[in-house]
């Protein structure tokens, strides 16, 4: 497990440094056509209160699904923007959902240790949306090789756009959310 965690942290650090030194503009993503979208892999993860939460619980809403870790520099840059997006869109059929990749747990002791690290971070960042804790299958399900990784999921539970790496263009994310909210 430590080697997987170390790879994520190293990947996150590398992406953050690339973002600092690259001259490229912020990352944008275009929506995949509705007919070409694939169903988002099913997630069923624990929240801080120990309640099982399923991605399918949010069916009917547009979901910004953000995979992050407390030690990820790029994640620290993006989270405040996602907090703003949650504030702007929460009453319009949208929800942001954070998935902490800090520690994958096998028993309650590990889950408690993970939440002991994540909860103070979430309070410090003023995260205003649900946070779930990743398990061992999460990185494989979403093919996560580096952090941050963010997916926009349409009301039918299908992946409509993805952003992997730092310096996501907030305006592009909001434009895509608006388009998804207006789909019928």
Notes on the protein architecture:
The protein has 184 residues and is of the alpha+beta class. It has one domain (2-181): Glutaredoxin, CATH 3.40.30.10. Helix content is 39%, strand content 21%. It has 5 helices and 8 strands. It has an 8-stranded mixed β-sheet with strand order 1-8-7-4-5-6-2-3, with helices on one face. The chain is globular. The N and C termini lie far apart (42 Å). Mean pLDDT is 85; it is low at 14-25.
Q: Can you tag this structure with a few keywords?
A:
184 residues; globular; 5 helices; 21% strand; alpha+beta; 8-stranded mixed sheet; single chain
Concise synopsis of the structure shown:
The protein contains five helices and eight strands.
């Amino acid at each position: 497990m430590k080697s997987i965690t170390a790879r994520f942290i190293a990947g996150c650090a590398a992406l953050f440094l690339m973002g600092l030194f690259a001259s490229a503009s912020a990352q944008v993503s275009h929506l995949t056509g509705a007919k070409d979208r694939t169903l988002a892999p099913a997630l069923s993860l624990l929240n801080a209160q120990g309640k099982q939460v399923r991605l399918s619980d949010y069916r009917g809403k547009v979901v910004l699904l953000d995979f992050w870790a407390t030690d990820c520099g790029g994640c620290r840059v993006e989270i405040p923007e996602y907090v703003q997006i949650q504030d702007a869109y929460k009453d319009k059929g949208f929800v942001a959902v954070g998935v902490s990749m800090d520690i994958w747990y096998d028993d309650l002791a590990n889950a408690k240790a993970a939440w002991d690290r994540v909860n103070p971070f979430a309070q410090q960042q003023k995260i205003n949306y649900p946070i779930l804790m990743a398990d061992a299958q999460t990185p494989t399900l979403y093919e996560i090789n580096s952090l941050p990784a963010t997916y926009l999921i349409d009301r039918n539970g299908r992946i409509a756009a993805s952003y992997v790496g730092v310096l996501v263009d907030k305006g592009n994310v909001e434009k895509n959310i608006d388009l998804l909210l207006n789909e019928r």
